Amino acid sequence: MLDTRQLDVPRFLAVLPLFSDLAPSELERLAQGCQLRRVERSAVLFRIGEPCESFHVVVTGQVKLFVISPSGQEKVIELIAPGHSFAEALMFLGKPYVVNAQTLADSLLLTVQRHTVMDELQRDPRFALRMLAGLSRRLHGLVHDVQAYALQNGVQRVIGYLLRDQVRAEGGAGAAFTVSLPVSKATVASRLSLTPEYFSRVLRELEEARLIEVDKRDIRILDVQRLATYQT
Questions:
Q1: How far is CA 5 from CA 9, 84, 110, 136, in A?
Q2: In angstroms, rounded to a whole number, what is the distance separating the alpha carbons of residues 117 and 95?
Q3: Are strands 44-46 and 54-60 parallel, antiparallel or unpaired?
Q4: Contact 52, 96 (CB under 8 A)
Q5: Pick the residue with more confidence: 89 or 212?
Q6: CB count, 10 Å around CB of 52?
Q7: Residue 230 φ/ψ region, left for φ over 0, alpha for ψ in the -120 to 50 degree band, beta for the rest
Q8: 105: number of CA atoms within 13 Å, CB side?
Q9: Which residues contact 128 (CB under 8 A, 6 or more apart)?
């Protein structure tokens, strides 16, 4: 377990893309406006409509951003992994949260206060450009998701998810590798705008086609090329 007292906050900030070019003195100033807290699994960090006066970085653990439909169904908007931040855009707009946030595991979070960021923006215009770049990457990712949901069928979305962070082992493009789902299958299904039943059905179909092997949350990709070109 990571001891919160042992975390060097300026050093941690320095490895984040948003802050990687800042001088040590600038990192120290930012660190002074940060709050480090340990949060248990399933804790609600904020709800829709609550004021947003800070943004957050996941140090360890995982956070899901989600909304609840009028019928009571949960839709996962984004899964936030360690080293990634969330809620920056709303913090700048001064708007309340438009999604809910909940931890999916025991997590360590770094909260950066709005006034600290605004002070640094006034000191260094370069910092503003980096913030814009980070927000642009987030927007690009969300646009990509919308395109996938509109243009791809359910099987293609699942295959795209399994191959999204592909790291090919030695032995060529056809080499097998394993994807470990970081969350439950139901959560992944919601992230892909699929029902849990349909997601499980697609996994069975791909397994019957001898493209994957499923062992709980571990999914072994048997043939990358065949999977990437699989047609329903």
A1: 10, 21, 13, 33
A2: 16
A3: unpaired
A4: yes
A5: 212
A6: 19
A7: beta
A8: 16
A9: 121
For domain 154-228, which CATH number applies: 3.40.50.300, 1.10.357.10, 3.90.180.10, 1.10.10.10? 1.10.10.10
Q: How many CA atoms lie within 13 A of 14 on its CB side?
A: 13
Whole-model pTM? 0.71
Residue with tokens 């092997």: 213
> 3-state class of 112 per DSSP?
strand
In this predicted structure, which of 121-135, 140-154, 175-189 has the lowest mean pLDDT? 140-154
CATH number of 4-151: 2.60.120.10
Contact (Cβ atoms closer than 8 angstroms) between residue 158 and residue 202: yes
What residue spans in the chain does CATH classification 2.60.120.10 cover? 4-151
Q: Where in the chain is the domain with CATH 1.10.10.10?
A: 154-228
d(CA 206, CA 200): 10
80 forms bridges with which residues in the sheet?
A: 63
The whole-number pLDDT of residue 93 equals 81
Tokens 């048997």: give the residue. Answer: 222
